Amino acid sequence: MSVAFHCLDAYNTGSLHYAEMYHFYQMLFGDALDEDSLLQLAASAVLRGSSDFEHPRGITFEDFDQAIMQRVILYCKLEY
Hints:
With 80 residues, the protein is mostly helical. Helix content is 64%, strand content 5%.
């Protein structure tokens, strides 16, 4: 999980910000989503949990790890 996060953290800030999340969603969904949907996903991911809309805190490794782990656990429950 740490390797994936650090690959996405292009600016080495310790958190993922808008441009990094946009690029991540673009790689993940490709042409399946239009640009407006990708922009909206990136914005909502970065702003989630932040009360300061002008200076969002971004997504920390802990946020990223927890979000991914929740999806893995849900996937495992659905499969078995």
